[in-house]
TrEMBL record:
Catalyzes the oxidative decarboxylation of 6-phosphogluconate to ribulose 5-phosphate and CO(2), with concomitant reduction of NADP to NADPH. Pathway: Carbohydrate degradation; pentose phosphate pathway; D-ribulose 5-phosphate from D-glucose 6-phosphate (oxidative stage): step 3/3. The keyword Glycoprotein does not apply. It comes from the Eukaryota. It comes from Saccharomycodes ludwigii. One of its GO terms (biological process) is D-gluconate metabolic process. This is 6-phosphogluconate dehydrogenase, decarboxylating. Belongs to the 6-phosphogluconate dehydrogenase family.
Length: 494
């Protein structure tokens, strides 16, 4: 190859932490990366320091970047989601040819990815929206990558993506997800599950602290033990580590942190989408609302002086080991429910958006490299490999057995927390979903009667109640008051 010929396997725009680490990761795997940042001084600084001596080339303009890439040119964006992505794409497009590839690796909302996919498809450019998870460490040594969009691009980026991705039992935590915005959709659900995982862990911590009277060091030891069993996961591991850290005065640092949680919106996107698709993804919804409630700190301080609750005696827990064992089952069962709900949402999205989604690969992608990586994702992968069209994760024997075993301890933990006034929104909603899902009959019959009474919204009868007067499958309006009319509304669907 002559010196004038382009050498770049991948162009990457955006030299914040994730961008820099992904470039170094790709260079470690033998790829030549062309690095560009809008603030060009960052490029020079990166080349002179972290990138020194590696197969990384700097670019001082988008034209320079594109000229240094092999065809088809592959340009990845790791920049702030929203308008900056559109602006960068608009500047890139005139420099590219048909068949070139643009990859958005940021936290874009999937409707934006759908739109960009269609716009670029019309121009002959392949657009890929890829979820990237794993934080700074993951980007550097192996993230979870969730690419979707123009499938024509996959053969050209597959080797790069699967080489730099985390590995689980030798398999890369990266595969093709599906068309259009499917990659970013799956990343959105991943982030929603992350919200849920963090909330259930926080509830277990709160119960141990407030009811069990455990110190942070003791709670850390419990999480360390749990991390060797069914709860083995990244978030349990970091919780163990956080609770061990003392400040310079010897007191736990975590106790000095203001109890108001921030959020970037991806969990909220998941909850809103679940409502749009009519899927009961209750645990993620409660996790988002819990962060919202935490933000009302001043109000909560005032409420704490006015609203009564039970006192927690010092000896509330008689058998500490049984208490911990129950709590482990509550945490485990709630996590299973959260993942099952997440996959319910993904399944419905596939139907509603006409996406053929790769469920076994999605579970494998989350098995390593990402924030929600945990040991039982291996079991989820197995479940979907055995039956890619599995109706619900809870119908797989592994998870059916796990919940059947967990439910007594799960109920005891929630009962104890409720009796002592410790809030467990995620634990409780997970159990309520479990009990609702396993109920052959729910009180929605009364709800439909109410809707028909006040709004003539109609109802349908049970198959066994059908007769000449009430036919199965028919929308029926009943004159509940004896002086109503016979005109009904045509809005049966709740």
């Amino acid at each position: 190859m002559s010196s004038s010929e382009p050498k770049g396997d991948l162009g990457l725009i955006g030299l914040a932490v994730m961008g820099q680490n992904l470039i170094l990761n790709a260079a470690d795997h033998g790829f030549t990366v062309v690095a560009y940042n809008r603030t060009v001084s960052k490029v020079d600084h990166f080349l002179a320091n972290e990138a020194k001596g590696k197969s990384i080339i700097g670019a001082h303009s988008l034209e320079d970047l594109v000229s240094k890439l092999k065809r088809p040119r592959k340009v990845m964006l790791l920049i702030k989601a929203g308008a900056p992505v559109d602006t960068t794409i608009n500047h890139l497009v005139p420099l590219l040819d048909k068949g070139d590839i643009i990859i958005d690796g940021g936290n874009s909302h999937f409707p934006d990815t759908n739109r960009r996919y269609e716009e670029l498809k019309a121009k002959g450019i392949y657009f890929v929206g890829s979820g990237v998870s794993g934080g700074e460490e993951g980007a550097r040594y192996g993230p979870s990558l969730m690419p979707g969009g123009a499938e024509e691009a996959w053969p050209y980026i597959k080797n790069i993506f699967q080489s730099i991705a985390a590995k689980s039992d030798g398999e890369p935590c990266c595969d093709w997800v599906g068309p259009a915005g499917a990659g970013h959709y799956v990343k959105m659900v991943h982030n929603g599950i992350e919200y849920g995982d963090m909330q259930v862990i926080c509830e277990a911590y709160d119960i141990m602290k407030r009811i069990g009277g455990f110190t942070d060091k003791e709670i850390s030891e419990v999480f360390a033990k749990w991390n060797k069993g069914v709860l083995d996961s990244f978030l349990v591991e970091i919780t163990r580590d956080i609770l061990k850290v003392n400040d310079t005065d010897g007191t736990p640092l975590v106790e000095k942190i203001l109890d108001t949680a921030g959020q970037k919106g991806t969990g909220k996107w998941t909850a809103i989408n679940a409502l749009d698709l009519g899927m009961p993804v209750t645990l993620i919804g409660e996790a988002v609302f819990s962060r919202c409630l935490s933000a009302l700190k001043e109000e909560r301080i005032r409420a704490s002086t006015k609203l009564l609750g039970p006192e927690i005696p010092k000896d509330a827990v008689k058998d500490k080991q049984a208490f911990i064992d129950d709590l482990e089952q509550a945490l485990y069962a709630s996590k299973i429910i959260s993942y099952a709900q997440g996959f319910m949402l993904i399944r419905q999205a596939g139907k509603d958006y006409g996406w053929k989604l790769n469920n076994p690969a999605i579970a494998l992608m989350w098995r390593g490299g990402c924030i929600i990586r945990s040991i039982f994702l291996g079991e989820i992968t197995k479940a979907y490999r055995a039956d890619p069209d599995l109706e619900n994760l809870l119908f797989d024997k592994f998870f059916t057995d796990a919940l059947n075993k967990a439910q007594p301890g799960w109920r005891r933990s929630i009962g104890l927390a409720t009796s002592y006034g410790v809030p467990t929104p995620a634990f409780s909603t997970a159990l309520a979903f479990y009990d609702g899902y396993r109920s052959k009959r729910l009180p929605a019959n009364l709800l439909q009667a109410q809707r028909d009474y006040f709004g003539a919204h109609t109802f349908r009868v049970l198959p066994e109640a059908a007769n000449d007067h009430y036919k199965e499958g028919e929308d029926i309006h009943f004159d509940w008051t004896g002086h109503g009319g016979h005109v009904s509304a045509t809005t049966y669907d709740a």
